[in-house]
Structures are given as structure tokens and as C-alpha cells.
């Protein structure tokens, strides 16, 4: 089955209409409550636990992980997240002859990824015959699609890996920024919107949406180049003819900064820019955090729901502040070739109940 056909089948369970179903959302909200319970003192890998439990809920509920409460499940998450072996694998793919020469030396520094616990989780889940109707596994088990057991397991493993670091790191960078004194007025405005609208659905809250979009614009979890082959016959791009099979690429980090008429002061974290009517079409056109087109992110609506539900639950009750052990250096974006992660591999924040927080911010 080719990629486009396969993707059409799977996309059904990631469509916004499916994500917005109560069984899907209730599962995310339950994990958001567990997250707050777990880390009233610190936010770190727990965001990755949250993303892990969220994506496995969508993949194979009721057989998903419970890493926010169960240490064994957390070990699975750790095995998949913070993967440093991508460089090695990409060199192997794009420069096989170079890899033959330096592969052995490389693997001394960058161990090839092995994920036996995660493999076991998906192999066992893919065997279940009773996944909930909203899950990806339920869709794949539909006899009409003739998918084999190993194929389903492999697909689930890919989606699981794709849904942990991305959502986890996206939240880390965003919550870190909201916790800085320079952004406290933004945190306050978000809290005010959330407290004034306790019964409004998370996807109808304008400022929450602006905060998430700006977070993903400034700190896209996959900021680097996404390579594609130019199709047969070549293509003319911006007046330049590019022959077929040339590798071209585009990257979120650049498209989010390149046109200062669309994103003035591009390095400034400024959610207000998303509220302006003028320029809306151009902002959406240049927003590339989830890429776009046939290879764009299938989990976009799930990721947005996870991010917004967690931010709603945290900022309607708490103020977040950087833990004193953290430094700016810990939170620099570390280049993982395609994805990024905080250099210190941690993001510790303090959650202070709003009723105790009498500070006012500009
Ligand atoms: C903030 C969170 C996320 C970001 C920023 C993100 C970003 C991206 C990007 C940029 C791509 C395109 C990669 C490429 O072109 O090579 C992609 C693909 C993909 N993403 Fe996400 N993603 C996120 C969350 C998720 C989640 C929660 C899932 C869970 C299912 C997911 C599943 C996938 C899959 C399966 C693909 C490959 C799609 C294909 O082969 O056509 N992502 N994602």
C-alpha cells in the first residue's frame, strides 16, 4: 500500500472531529490532572510522560501507557525519548559509503537506538482485539484494510515515537518562556482568559490558541530541514528550474523568521501577533511547525489538543516559575539534526497556586 493511501486510512483517527470526541478528550484531561498531581513541585520529563500517555491513549486505549503513575511505563518513555542516535542513522541513510567508513567509530559516541520495552508494549497492544472505537488500532484492525499484525505494530511504534518528544519538548520550551519575568504579562493574560471562561471549550479560547501558535513558531519541536525529492520532470520554484530527484528542503525555524513583514521582531515571543486580523493568511502560510502537504504531521490535532488541555489545566490554577536550579543554558535549543530538545534535558518549573500569588505584572 503506498504512503498516500495508507495515510488516508490512518488520518481518520487523527481528524479533529475524532480527537474532539469525549472519549478521546476525557483521556487527555485525565492525564493532564495526573500530570499536575505528579509535578506540583517540578516539571521535567513529566511532560514527556504526559505526551507518551496521551499518544498511546489515542493509539490503543484501554491498553495505553500510564507513565505518569507507573515507573515501569516511565522507563519505556525514557527509552524512546531524548534519542541521540538520529545523526548516526541519517548519515547511514544519506551517505551509506561514508557511513561504512566511519560508522563503527560513530557508534562509540552515538549508540544505535534500541527500544525493547517500547517494542514489547506495541507488540502486545497490537494483539488486543478490543481497542476503543476512537483509536488508531481499531481503525487498522478493520478487515477492509488487510493490515498485518506486524505492520500495525510498526505503525503504532512510529506514531508513538513521533508523539512524545515533539509534544513534550514543545510544551517544555513554551512553559519555560511563559515562566520568564519578561513573559509574565503573557502568563497573566492567559490566566485571566482561562479564569473568565471556565466553561468554554479549550479550542474556542483565542488567547490560548495564540500562545500555543507563538510557542510552536518560536520553538518548533522540529525546526530543521525536511528534505524532499523533486518529482519527475523537475519543477520551477521562484523562477529557478530544479531538476527531478534533486533534494530540496524547507525548515520551520527559517520560515517562522524569514519574512519580517509577516512576523515583525521574529525572535520576540509575542502571542498578540496571532490576534491581529491583518496578515492572518500570510502567518498561516508561513507557519510550518507541523510541515504541510502529503507528508505533513498526521498527529497535529492530537498534539494541539494535548498542549491546550494541559496549559488550560495548569494556568487556570497555577503560576509557573523557573526552579532556582535551572539556567538559561539548560533551555537552549540543542540541535538533534531534525528535532530539538533542551540542552540540559530538563525543564524544572515551580507551580504556585494562583490564590497565593499576589504579584502584579506589567
Ligand atoms: C507539537 C507536536 C508535534 C510537532 C511539532 C510535529 C511535527 C511534525 C512534522 C514537522 C512532521 C513532518 C516530518 C517530515 O516531513 O519529515 C511530522 C510528521 C508526523 N507526525 Fe508529527 N508532530 C507533533 C506531534 C505528533 C503527534 C502527537 C503524533 C502522533 C500520532 C505525530 C505523528 C506524526 C507522524 C506519524 C508523522 C509522519 C506523517 C507521514 O508520514 O506522512 N506527531 N510531525
UniProtKB/TrEMBL annotation:
Give yes or no: UniProt keyword Cytoplasm: no
What GO annotations for molecular function exist for this entry? heme binding; iron ion binding; monooxygenase activity; oxidoreductase activity, acting on paired donors, with incorporation or reduction of molecular oxygen
Q: Does the keyword Metal-binding apply?
A: yes
Q: Which UniProt keywords apply?
A: Heme, Iron, Metal-binding
Name the needed cofactors: heme
Query: In which residues is heme bound?
Result: 297
Give the highest taxon in the source lineage.
Eukaryota
Q: What is this protein called?
A: Cytochrome P450
- Give the source lineage, highest ranks first: Eukaryota, Fungi, Dikarya, Ascomycota, Pezizomycotina
Amino acid at each position: 500500500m503506498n504512503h498516500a493511501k495508507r495515510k488516508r486510512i490512518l488520518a481518520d483517527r487523527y481528524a479533529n472531529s475524532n480527537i474532539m470526541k469525549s472519549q478521546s478528550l476525557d483521556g487527555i484531561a485525565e492525564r493532564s490532572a495526573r500530570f499536575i498531581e505528579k509535578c506540583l513541585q517540578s516539571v521535567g520529563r513529566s511532560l514527556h510522560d504526559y505526551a507518551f500517555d496521551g499518544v498511546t491513549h489515542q493509539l490503543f486505549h484501554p491498553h495505553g501507557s500510564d507513565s505518569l503513575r507507573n515507573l515501569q511505563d516511565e522507563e519505556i518513555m525514557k527509552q524512546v525519548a531524548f534519542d541521540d542516535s538520529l545523526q548516526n542513522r541519517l548519515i547511514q541513510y544519506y551517505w551509506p559509503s561514508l557511513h561504512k567508513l566511519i560508522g563503527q567509530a560513530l557508534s562509540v559516541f552515538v549508540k544505535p537506538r534500541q527500544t525493547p520495552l517500547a517494542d514489547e508494549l506495541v507488540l502486545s497492544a497490537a494483539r488486543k482485539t478490543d481497542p476503543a472505537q476512537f483509536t488508531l488500532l481499531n481503525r487498522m484492525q478493520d478487515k477492509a484494510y488487510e493490515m498485518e499484525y506486524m505492520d500495525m505494530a510498526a505503525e503504532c511504534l512510529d506514531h508513538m515515537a513521533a508523539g512524545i518528544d515533539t509534544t513534550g519538548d514543545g510544551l517544555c520550551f513554551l512553559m519555560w518562556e511563559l515562566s520568564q519575568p519578561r513573559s509574565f504579562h503573557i502568563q497573566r493574560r492567559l490566566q485571566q482568559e482561562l479564569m473568565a471562561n471556565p466553561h468554554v471549550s479549550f479550542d474556542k479560547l483565542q488567547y490560548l490558541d495564540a500562545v500555543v501558535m507563538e510557542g510552536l513558531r518560536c520553538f518548533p519541536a522540529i525546526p530543521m530541514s525536511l528534505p524532499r525529492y523533486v518529482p519527475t520532470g523537475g519543477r520551477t520554484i521562484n523562477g529557478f528550474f530544479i531538476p527531478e530527484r534533486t533534494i530540496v528542503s524547507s525548515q520551520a525555524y527559517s520560515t517562522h523568521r524569514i519574512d519580517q513583514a509577516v512576523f515583525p521582531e521574529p525572535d520576540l515571543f509575542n502571542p498578540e501577533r496571532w490576534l491581529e486580523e491583518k496578515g492572518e493568511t500570510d502567518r498561516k502560510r508561513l507557519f510550518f511547525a507541523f510541515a504541510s502537504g502529503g507528508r505533513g504531521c498526521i498527529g497535529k490535532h492530537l498534539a494541539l489538543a494535548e498542549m491546550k488541555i494541559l496549559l488550560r489545566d495548569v494556568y487556570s490554577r497555577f503560576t509557573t516559575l523557573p526552579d532556582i536550579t535551572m539556567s538559561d543554558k539548560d533551555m537552549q535549543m540543542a540541535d538533534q539534526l531534525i528535532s530539538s530538545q533542551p540542552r540540559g534535558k530538563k525543564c524544572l518549573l515551580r507551580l504556585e497556586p494562583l490564590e497565593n500569588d499576589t504579584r502584579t505584572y506589567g
